[in-house]
Amino acid sequence: MAILNLIKLAIKALQRNKLRAFLTMLGIIIGVAAVIAMMAIGQGSKESIRSSLSGMGSNMITIFPQSNLEGGVRMGGSSFQSLTMKDVNAIKKQATKIDGISPVVNASGQAVNGGQNWPTSIYGVSQDYLHIRQFSLKDGVNFTDKDILTSAKVCLLGQTVIDNLFAPGVDPVGKYIRFGKTPFQVIGILNPKGQSNFGQDQDDIILAPYTTVQNRITASTVYLNQIYVSAISEAASDSATNEITSILRANHHLTDQQEDDFNVRTQAELISTISATSSMLTVLLTSIAGISLFIGGIGIMNIMYVSVTERTKEIGLRMAIGARGSDILMQFLIEAIIISITGGLIGVGLGLLSSFLITKLAHWPVLISETSIMISFLVCGITGVFFGYYPAQKAARLDPIEALRYE
Amino acid sequence: MAQEILNIQHLKRSFAMGGETVHALKDVSFSIQAGEFVTIMGSSGSGKTTMLNILGCLDNPTSGTYMLDGQDVGKLDRNQLARVRNSKIGFVFQSYNLLARTTALENVELPLFYNKKVNAAERKQRAIKALQAVKLDGRMDHLPNQLSGGQQQRVAIARALVGEPVMILADEATGNLDTRTSYEIMALMQDLNKEGKTIVFVTHEPDIAAFSSRTIMLRDGSVQKDLKNEKVRSARQALEELPPADSYSI
């Protein structure tokens, strides 16, 4: 019998008991809706962690001086000085996968404004630093090439420093502060970033041209504490790291036998740890939802079994008027599939709706992926076939004589 | 000579029941010509039901041959038997066996769903024609529970007719009906028979057998009598002779 006829028969049979068909679907509807909503929540939280990380600069690459073997004694990284402005210029010239580079020289000390003082750190950097660290200016301007060339005594202040040095309501831009003995004019204010993922206050910071910090504060004009680089994208981090490594090795005249005298780190490791955590959350939520889908499938099997028993006489009649076992099998199988696919469709709709409501009402980040819709739909179809097959087979194997006499 | 619709030779059917073999049919032979109206009679245990199952291609004989419309159907498998049932036999059951919550028209269409050669338009057209033949074309959209017993049986007869079978096989088709309605059904059967339909009617009621042209009596699995009925009673006339319908209200 043509498959189209079978589908028509199955739909007619389902229409004869709409309420039951709906109740059977309910398990699937709830299961699919749960899978989609849970996956949307899981993916959403993963994405929000990712975006908060990239706010920190997820494509940021940090270059530290590295300990090196020196007569068999391994020296600590900070005790070793290997990074210079030559390295910065070489990377800037040769690397293709980066879009920002800044040297970092830093010093700790006391910042003073009139009667107020505050212990903080000053970072000598170039203009790119703001872009690399994803800082933005709330007020004022960034320093210029000219400021760097002339070791101008200008600085940008983080919110924490401002809070501790200035009375509320006072505009710091244009005012002078001292760091140690050196006076600086405040030319800009950074937008607050809050705590970093490690609990550091990222706003407790003073930024100044690196030349100024080198000449006026650290009095060390050759070596840099760190170099910050930003890769053009998070994905390009690894290839940028490779580029930087080979540029620095060439620049430092290292032979193949020698270890790196620097260390290049990306944020990728951190990101992968955190996204692994939220992936686990997604898996957990999805498996709970998956279980409900499975239970929905068992519901289908249960009802199909009842339905086969209840309709024994109908099956006998269909066989008597010419239905083959395979026709009966297909009819019940198609009924089960129609139930699960229809349930799946409604479930997808409900899942999308509830994801939407979750964002609207609870302000949770959700991300609906086509994959989750496709997977749950596929699972529905498989559920229909899997749980529909045994009852359908039971129906197909009935003896028409006994089925006709069944009361 | 009329065409032979079915021919049964030395038909036997036995069942193994708890170590014992029960011989439900022992060497039955007869043939039926096109246009005959045959009743198969017998008391319970006579092998009537086994006979019906074999005639209806629901069961295979243990031995012997069963030729239906020139085809040896005794040795077909399940699927082949299903095709024979669909194309050559029209069943009418005692309990009508209509699908609940399904309109009369859809019930009649049902056998054609299992026939690949019939498309949707032809299916509907033939079902309407079959309902016209049983004078129920005014009730095509009625559900079985909106029809009387006699009307339901007429829908079932339409369903048997729709596949244009070579034989209509009725199993106690009047068993659930009162006398008047039984006679109405028999009148319809006689009309169909006059139009050339071959009818095999299994029953245990002698007064139903009187409407047929031939009666085969089964007893203990064998043919006891096989009589031509010279004086076929007219069901329509019998209806007129019945006392008027009870006039008291419910």
Task: Please outline the helices and strands.
The complex is a heterodimer of chains A (407) and B (250).
Chain A: H1 3-15, H2 18-55, E1 60-65, E2 69-70, E3 73-74, H3 85-94, E4 98-113, E5 116-125, H4 128-132, E6 137-140, H5 145-149, E7 154-157, H6 159-165, E8 176-179, E9 182-190, E10 206-209, H7 210-218, E11 226-231, H8 237-251, E12 262-266, H9 268-310, H10 312-320, H11 325-362, H12 370-396, H13 400-405
Parallel strand pairs in A: 5-10, 7-9
Antiparallel strand pairs in A: 1-11, 1-12, 2-3, 4-5, 4-8, 4-11, 6-9, 7-10, 8-9
Chain B: E1 4-17, E2 20-33, E3 37-41, H1 48-55, E4 63-68, E5 71-72, H2 78-88, E6 89-92, H3 104-113, H4 120-133, H5 149-162, E7 167-171, H6 179-194, E8 199-203, H7 206-209, E9 214-219, E10 222-228, H8 235-241
Parallel strand pairs in B: 3-8, 3-9, 6-7, 7-8
Antiparallel strand pairs in B: 1-2, 1-4, 4-5, 9-10
Short key terms for the protein model shown above:
heterodimer, A: alpha+beta, six-stranded mixed barrel, two-stranded antiparallel ribbon, B: 250 residues, alpha/beta, Rossmann fold, six-stranded mixed beta sheet, four-stranded antiparallel beta sheet, Macrolide_Exporter_MacB (chain A), ABC3_permease_C (chain A)
Description of the molecule:
Chain A has helices at residues 3-15, 18-55, 85-94, 128-132, 145-149, 159-165, 210-218, 237-251, 268-310, 312-320, 325-362, 370-396, 400-405, and strands at 60-65, 69-70, 73-74, 98-113, 116-125, 137-140, 154-157, 176-179, 182-190, 206-209, 226-231, 262-266. Chain A is α+β, with helices and mostly antiparallel strands. Chain A has 2 domains: 3-52 and 273-405, no CATH class; 60-266, no CATH class. The radius of gyration of chain A is 34 Å and the shape is elongated. Chain B is α/β, with parallel strands linked by helices. Chain B has a single domain, classed as Rossmann fold (3-Layer(aba) Sandwich), CATH 3.40.50.300. In chain B, the strands form 2 sheets. Chain B has a 6-stranded mixed beta sheet, sandwiched between helices. The longest helix of chain B is centred in the last third of the chain and has 16 residues, at 179-194. Chain B is globular. Chain A: It is a multi-pass membrane protein. Chain A: One of its GO terms (molecular function) is transmembrane transporter activity. Chain A: It comes from Arachidicoccus rhizosphaerae. Chain A: InterPro entries: ABC3_permease_C (IPR003838), MacB_PCD (IPR025857), Macrolide_Exporter_MacB (IPR050250).
